[in-house]
Amino acid sequence: MGESTGPAVMALGTLPVLTAAGALVWAAAGPRTTVRRRLGRLARPASVCAVLSLITSFALPKAGPGPGWKLVETAVLLLLLAVVTRWSPRRDLTWALPPGVLAVALWPLPLVADESFLESIGAVAFWLVPAAASVAAGAYPRRQARRRRSAVAEARRTQRRQLSRDLHDFVAHDISGIVVQAQAARFVAATDPGQALLALERIERAGLSALASMDRTVEMLHGPEASTTEPLPDLSRLPTLIADFTSAGATRARLELPPPVARALSREAGRAAYRIVVEALTNIRRHAPGASHATVVFTATAATVEIRVTNDRGTRPGPARRRVARGGLGLPSLTEHTRALGGTLSAGPHGDGGWRLTAVLPATPPKETP
């Protein structure tokens, strides 16, 4: 009877390590395109191997293959723990890791059963260290990969926000001008063909400007090394912007931008100021087409530059226009951008049915002359 059960007991004792090694070989020996997916499926085999190891450790403490084989088994389990921690889904770790850690930490307990309680605790604590190290070895690259994915996702979100701002601030402004000019040309075409021709010329300029903005946006998608288009507009383009806005509709716009105020803003703040004015004028064109006048005033203090864009309600109704869906992302996006520069932005009713947008941007300290 002993001769017949000896080989069976030995085979049972080697079952955990053979199962664990077989699972690792199965995962690593597959095609390169499927290795990662197979590694992510080792949680269940790992838990089965750990349970088998616990059973053989306590059921066959003396009749098993011996401590040497258990060390090999423990080494394979440690490798399996690291792989499972690195590649398995998070939901599988809660039931795959505990039995593996227990199998590594408790396997010497039957061998020291005759020793004192403190020695047994010491043996368990000793083997908990490699188990924790194995889990940490798998958790660190997992954490780094998650951080890289988060960084890539955040970079993509930032790029999408930048593209959205460019499309909204510049392209939408030019398209709005095209719509206004087309409506005006339709009303005067029959009575004053000369004015209709001028409106068509302004439509052409606005269309070219929209194409330039689209080209700049597309260049951003190819990276900074591919950027060959003109830079983003800044305060130097404001006089042209105001003139085009006035010629495109019934609202007359006026700009107050003293040269010292323009020099008080950094390049980035100047570009933000241009975006703010574009957004304010676009909103006037969309929501207050009957406004008779609008003012854009820059005022400088010792530490800030204030921008005020104000329009009245007007007494003349604007051309009839079709209602279009709006995303409403312009002002919130500009508010976020302004805060990132250290400023503030607000908008609200002003006067008798008018509207005012106010932005405050930090001023660049003047350079000291020697």
Within CATH, the superfamily of one domain carries the name Histidine kinase-like ATPase, C-terminal domain
For the residues shown, what is the average pLDDT? 79
Instruction: Report the major sheet.
Output: 5 strands, mixed
* Succession of helices and strands: HHHHHHHHEHHEEHEE
Question: Can you tell me the CATH class of one domain?
Answer: Alpha Beta
Helix content: 55-70%
Measured by DSSP, the beta-strand proportion falls in 5-15%
- Helix vs. strand class: alpha+beta
Could you name the CATH topology of one domain?
Answer: Heat Shock Protein 90
Cα shape: elongated
Low-pLDDT runs of 5+ residues are: 1-5, 317-328
Our count of helices gives 11
What is the CA-CA span between the terminal residues? 105 Å
Radius of gyration: 36 Å
CATH architecture of one domain: 2-Layer Sandwich
How would you write the strand order of the largest sheet?
Answer: 1-2-3-5-4
Number of strand segments? 5
Describe the structure.
With 370 residues, the protein is of the alpha+beta class. 64% of the residues lie in helices and 10% in strands. Among the domains are: 2-114; 234-314 and 330-370, Histidine kinase-like ATPase, C-terminal domain (Heat Shock Protein 90), CATH 3.30.565. The protein has helices at residues 2-28, 32-39, 43-59, 67-87, 90-106, 117-188, 193-221, 238-247, 259-263, 267-287, 330-340, and strands spanning 252-256, 293-300, 304-311, 344-350, 354-362. The protein has a 5-stranded mixed β-sheet. The longest helix has 72 residues, at 117-188. The N and C termini lie far apart (105 Å). Mean pLDDT is 79; it is low at 1-5 and 317-328.
